[in-house]
Design goal:
Layout: E1 3-7, E2 10-13, E3 18-25, E4 32-38, E5 45-51, E6 57-60, E7 68-73, E8 78-83, E9 92-99, E10 108-111, E11 115-120
Parallel strand pairs: 2-11
Antiparallel strand pairs: 1-3, 3-8, 4-5, 4-9, 5-6, 7-8, 9-10, 9-11
Length: 121
C-alpha cells in the first residue's frame, strides 16, 4: 500500500520561503512525482513534476517558474518543493502525488493528504 505524507506548510509573509516535504511510505519508488495545489473556490492546479527516468527532468507551471524548485531524494523516499518569493496568490493546500503522466497537472495514481500554505501581504 502506498502512502504519501506532506509536511512543511505554514504561514509566511509575501516574499518569504517555505520548503514542503512529501515522505513516501510503502512501495513508493516511481519514476515521476509532482506537486499540485488548490485554493478555496479554485480548480486544482499542477505546480511541478520531476521524472527520475529522464535524469531528474523537472517541469513547472508558468505561475511558479523561477520561484519554485522540485527535487527528489530517492534514498529517503522524499519529494521536496522549495518555494521562494512567495506571493499571496500562492496560498493553497499543496498535495504531492505519484504521476502517470509526467507533467504539471498530469494524471495521478496516488495523493497525499495535503499541507496548507498561507502567504500574507
Amino acid at each position: 500500500q502506498v502512502q504519501l505524507e506532506e509536511s512543511g506548510g505554514g504561514s509566511v509573509q509575501a516574499g518569504g520561503s517555505l520548503r514542503l516535504s512529501c515522505l513516501g511510505l510503502g512501495s513508493t519508488y516511481r519514476s515521476c512525482m509532482g506537486w499540485f495545489r488548490q485554493a478555496p473556490g479554485k480548480e486544482r492546479e499542477g505546480v511541478a513534476a520531476i521524472d527520475s527516468e529522464e535524469a531528474g527532468r523537472t517541469r513547472y507551471a508558468e505561475s511558479v517558474k523561477g520561484r519554485f524548485t522540485i527535487t527528489k531524494d530517492n534514498a529517503k523516499n522524499t519529494l521536496y518543493l522549495e518555494m521562494s518569493s512567495l506571493k499571496p496568490e500562492d496560498t493553497a493546500m499543496y498535495y504531492c502525488a505519484i504521476l502517470r503522466d509526467c507533467r504539471p497537472g498530469g494524471a495521478a495514481s496516488y495523493w497525499g493528504q495535503g499541507t496548507q500554505v498561507t502567504v500574507s501581504s
